[in-house]
Amino acid sequence: MTKSSFLPRPGFRCAAALALVLGLPALSAQAQVLRPPGQLRVPGLGTLGTGAGVQRQADYIVAVVNSEPITNNEVRARMLRTEQQMAQQGTALPPKNELARLLLERIIVERAQLQLAREQGVQVSEAMVDEAVLNVARQNQLSVDELRQRVTAQGLVFSQFRTDLRNEILLTRIRERELESQAKVSDQEVEQFIREQEAGSDPAAQELNLAQILVVVPENATPAQVASLQARAQLAAERARSGTDFTALVGEFSNAPGRSADGQMGLRPANRYPELFVDTTKNVPVGGIAGPVRSGAGFHVLKVLERKRAGMPGATVVETRARHILLRPTAQLGEAAAVARLADFQKRIAAGQADFAALARENSQDASAKDGGDLGWAGPGQFVPEFEERMNSLAPGQVGDPVVSRFGVHLIQVLERRNTRLSPREQRDIVRASLREKKFEEAYSAWAQEVRGRAYVEYREPPQ
User: Which of 225, 438, 409, 413 is nearest to 311 (CA)?
Assistant: First the structure.
């Protein structure tokens, strides 16, 4: 979850946008904690009903876009939803007048794009809207009637809900039509990007994943003890170079405090490793062994697991399989009460009085409940930061303290971890997707400014 931006961003699925606005269950089990696209955007929602929480007042026109008015109530409704979303994210709110100005500009940009779509004959049939409504319902495990009831309970008008879905589809189609050709990435561009990344020599722009065997030298060791420990480290290095499994050697030789079972120190920028490690391994190929080298801690034998330029996809990723119990705060169950309830679950699980999966099936308020809260395997960056940070701090089998995210309050248990190696093709696919995203963003920014510049915009009274 990255922080809010007030400019619309292409490619945000309408179902996800509407789920966030309506407080619906997420699109899948993982969607309760999945990281949304880079910039939060809820296009086309400016004309939704103001909802029970908005005080109605006499409406008036705040701007006109090519003779189509934008009303104060549209901006007020958008402000309410944006304030709620930013509060859930823990993002500081700008002054109300500044927020109103930014949101009015966003609505102007969207309105100009919708008008262009209609001028160019882009159409969305009733069947397409029906299918979109059905998808939103299915993805949130609701029937269409239940979705209608949920929308109405939020103080919204279902016919306007359909209109907003139609507008979202229109926006997506016009953007794809206008920009798809500019976002294509050739094989040559992928290869050039990889060559440029690999050619760089700045250590700060490199990332390393090293594993180590550390033979600790006590602070007051005698020369004889130092010589014996050095010989032990040398033996470990020789066996590693001869092909003995490094993980097995870690278990046999290493006594590094807090060491992991395989000795891995993790993929990180080179400047976050000790300079000794970087200098020792700079000419060592991936898979090669360096050392032993002496530091203040002892003798280190290092294995280069991975080396890449920052921004390049890694050859391996650490995946985590976790499960959770999600409670959504309500008027009847406040956030503090939800935290307390999950803390009680945590104690009962630790005492052997309750089973995590059973509690998840009975209590979790998302689609993973039927699977005992199991979220499946997930790589880095797939979950919102607060969830992922707590999950990454847990060892397999451990249940963490409750953590609050924009989706509610979670109780997390890590089940397993594994290293997954990406094939060269998968790494290239990641590069291609990254380059395409960058091209699309750049093209969209220029195109949106062009469309906005061609529109006749008349500002009336400022929104309040």
Answer: 438
Separation CA 410–CA 408 (nearest Å): 7
- Predicted TM-score (pTM) of the model is 0.49
Question: Does an H or E element contain 267, and which?
Answer: strand 264-269
Could you tell me if 136 and 104 are in contact, meaning their C-beta atoms sit under 8 angstroms apart? no
**In whole angstroms, what is the distance from residue 166 CA to residue 363 CA?**
35
Burial of 242 (0-12, 13-18, 19+ CB in 10 A): exposed
Backbone angles phi, psi at 246, to 5 degrees: -65, -40
**Which residue shows structure tokens 């209609």?**
118
Domains of the chain: 14-183+441-459 (1.10.4030.10), 199-309 (3.10.50.40), 316-421 (3.10.50.40)
Average confidence (pLDDT) over 364-383: 86
Q: How far is CA 280 from CA 204, 263, 291, 294, 304, in A?
A: 16, 17, 7, 11, 10
- Within 13 Å, how many C-alpha atoms sit on residue 366's CB side? 28
**The pLDDT of residue 261:** 59
**CA distances, 463 to each of 52, 61, 74, 220, 311 (Å):** 20, 9, 9, 74, 42
Tokens (6 digits) for 202: 């700045």
Q: Tell me the C-alpha distance between 359 and 362, whole Å.
A: 5
Residue 93: CB atoms within 10 A of its CB come to 13
Calculate mean pLDDT across residues 399-405: 88
Q: Given this model, what pLDDT does residue 296 score?
A: 78
Contact 314, 237 (CB under 8 A): no
Q: Is 135 exposed, middle or buried (0-12, 13-18, 19+ CB in 10 A)?
A: middle
3-state secondary structure at position 43:
coil
Distance CA 114, CA 173 (A): 10
What residue ranges in 109-163 does DSSP mark as E strands?
A: none
- The pair of structure tokens assigned to 193 is 């990007």
